[in-house]
Amino acid sequence: MERKTEVNAGFDRWSVFEKARKANRMHHAQAYQTLQHTLAETFSMPPRILDLGCGDAGDMAGVLRFQPVQSYTGVDNDPDVLSRAEMAFKELSVPARLILGGYEDALRSGPGSYDVIWLGLFLHHLPGAKKREFFQEAHRLIRSGGVLLVHDPVLKQGETRQEYIARIESACRAGWPELTAAEKDMMTRHWSLHGRQESLSALESMALAGGFGCMEVLWNDPCQFYAVMAFWN
Predict the structure, then answer these.
(1) Can you give the pTM of this predicted structure?
(2) How confident is the model at residue 127 (pLDDT cuts 50, 70, 90)?
């Protein structure tokens, strides 16, 4: 099981992440709109969804309010946010199961157990070797015709991780007025200490080596900090 700090991604206070999320700094709105559109356009029958690092599942609950699913499984190793996820699903008639545990535990499911695996700002927490292992396991878990959907920070082609961090730190410090200077420092520590960002081409290579058929970039923010990617099985 991965350490709790991996899922919390270095945020000393969840409230800092919440402030940035409410201001849509990490483009949650576009990511979950893309997720909702992809689910509606791809599956004629309600899909089975695995959400790794689901957090409080507030955005996902908003999607599933309108998108029928056969089942939803959310996994997180933070009991506090998982209790908030339980509240988010309480008023929805969604067959939801929430699991307290690490992502590796969830990957022990049988072949073809899911139609969709969703990763919301999770993949970049894993080092390269773990990412490669993850793609192999995700390929095994997703049925033929299913998809791995990933919302994650990505490097520009040819950009180093240090250049990415300098670029996003500059954007945060020049803007993001909802955060105090100390909270911006906290965001910078998060990006510096806990991110293993990759380029789109690097992720595509890992996915193809893991057995996926192709990668499609579904959405990319204008500043090229974040993207939503589909890896088709």
Answers:
(1) 0.92
(2) very high
